[in-house]
From TrEMBL:
<dbReference type="GO" id="GO:0006412">
    <property type="term" value="P:translation"/>
</dbReference>
<dbReference type="InterPro" id="IPR008991">
    <property type="entry name" value="Translation_prot_SH3-like_sf"/>
</dbReference>
<dbReference type="GO" id="GO:1990904">
    <property type="term" value="C:ribonucleoprotein complex"/>
</dbReference>
<dbReference type="GO" id="GO:0005840">
    <property type="term" value="C:ribosome"/>
</dbReference>
<keyword id="KW-0689">Ribosomal protein</keyword>
<dbReference type="InterPro" id="IPR001147">
    <property type="entry name" value="Ribosomal_eL21"/>
</dbReference>
<dbReference type="InterPro" id="IPR018259">
    <property type="entry name" value="Ribosomal_eL21_CS"/>
</dbReference>
<dbReference type="GO" id="GO:0003735">
    <property type="term" value="F:structural constituent of ribosome"/>
</dbReference>
<keyword id="KW-0687">Ribonucleoprotein</keyword>
<dbReference type="Pfam" id="PF01157">
    <property type="entry name" value="Ribosomal_L21e"/>
</dbReference>
<protein>
    <submittedName>
        <fullName>409_t:CDS:1</fullName>
    </submittedName>
</protein>
<comment type="similarity">
    <text>Belongs to the eukaryotic ribosomal protein eL21 family.</text>
</comment>
<dbReference type="InterPro" id="IPR036948">
    <property type="entry name" value="Ribosomal_eL21_sf"/>
</dbReference>
């Protein structure tokens, strides 16, 4: 229970690198392309201090609204009291990754389309989830 409240206070394990992942970052991190509207997960990388988001945003999911050569702008909904405030955060590409929630959604849409097609062929009710 320390008394200091610095910007990286209480992040000993949050920003630490996993076993055998210490050192420089893989090149594939920089080669990923991000477009406006992409859904991304924010995961701060302790190896790079520049462009690191505040610890509050670690583990959050947001939507990209701006793309520059080394960073992206992300919109995150932050709960304050009983309302949500739209926060815009600029984060370097080392600290984000594409979210899998979009992949699950697209997979579900394809499955529903197949089910609807089969239901039309049989003449029965449409089953979708």
């Amino acid at each position: 229970m320390p008394n200091s409240f610095g910007i990286r206070a209480r992040t000993r394990y949050m920003f630490s690198r996993k076993f055998r992942e210490h050192g420089s970052i893989r090149l594939s991190t920089y080669l990923k392309t991000y477009k406006v509207g992409d859904i991304v997960d924010i995961k701060a990388n302790g190896a790079v201090q520049k462009g690191m988001p505040h610890k509050f945003y670690h583990g959050r999911t947001g939507i990209i609204y701006n793309v520059t050569k080394s960073a992206v702008g992300v919109i995150i909904n932050k709960r304050v009291g009983n309302r949500f405030i739209e926060k815009r955060v600029n984060i370097r590409v080392e600290h984000i990754k594409h979210s899998k929630c979009r992949d699950d959604f697209l997979r579900r849409v394809k499955e529903n389309a197949i089910r609807k097609k089969e239901a039309r062929a049989k003449g029965g009710r449409k089953i979708s989830r």
